[in-house]
Amino acid sequence: MNNIDLAIILTTAFLGSVGHCIGMCGGIVVAYSSSKIDQDSPWSRQTLSHLAYNFGRVTTYTILGALFGLLGKVIAFTPTTKGVLFVLTGILMVLAGASLLGNFKFLNSAEWSVSRHGWFQRMFKILIQSRSLISFYLLGMLNGIIPCGLVYSFAIIAASTASPLWGALVMATFGLATIPALFFLGTVTKFLQQGSLRSTMMKMAAMLVIFYGLFVFYKGYKFIAHPQQMQQMLDAMHKKPAKTTTPSGATMQKCGGMKCAPGKCG
Fold it and tell me: Which of these, 157, 200, 113, lies nearest to 6 by C-alpha position?
């Protein structure tokens, strides 16, 4: 997992939020906006309410990311098993991307709705009637556990990191990238709900999911085909740079055979 991976995740999540989240979660946003937020209240209060709801979602996604990352860590305990995890992740992401394009119902068949359960409906009813800031945050957390095809796609990526920390970071990045579309839904509803715009954004996000899936699949192949080489590369990445002292007494670090001053490596 590196900056390029996170950039792809950020871009895909943002595009997907316009193409998918507006349609799936837009109803909940409109519902709490009309029943929980007083339109005559100060703009700052309304903004805090929307932010509390969205950061509630991000909290749930982050927790889910850590759990999926932990699951991946349990599975990927050798370079070969890590490669198998990457290959499976790549295949599932390609299928998820194709499903987002509407070619077949891979994600639809995997989704199940918790909103039909009595406990969920009771919690939703209590939170939708309260106007406290904490109720917006808890409503966001509750919304975060509703199964969603786009969430599944990023949960798969979180599992492939084989790290609770990186898994949490992946899902937190996903959640943060979906905030703009849902945050501005109340003020630009007509623009964001245009069919042509949403369709275009959804197709772009789906293609990025497929592209990233193929990349992860290739990375898995390299782990399976060259396990020792990939393990050595991972060990080198995690190895701390060696420190040396120059005749003048300055401390230098050796990174990949090159000497550099502290903080200047790379």
Answer: 157
Beta strands across the sheet bearing 258-260: 242-245, 251-255, 258-260
Name the token pair of 175: 């959640």
C-alpha Rg value of the chain to the nearest Å: 22
Model confidence over 184-238: pLDDT tens digits? 765 444 444 445 655 776 677 778 778 888 888 998 888 888 888 877 776 665 5
Closest CA relative to residue 70, chosen from 163, 172, 160: 163
Helical pair 133-144 and 118-129, crossing angle rounded to 10 deg: 150
29-63 tens-digit pLDDT: 777 777 777 777 888 888 898 899 999 999 999 99
Burial of 124 (0-12, 13-18, 19+ CB in 10 A): middle
Let me know how long the chain is.
Answer: 266
Please check whether residue 208 is in contact with residue 11, taking contact to mean a CB–CB distance below 8 angstroms. yes
What is the domain partition of the chain in residue ranges? 3-225
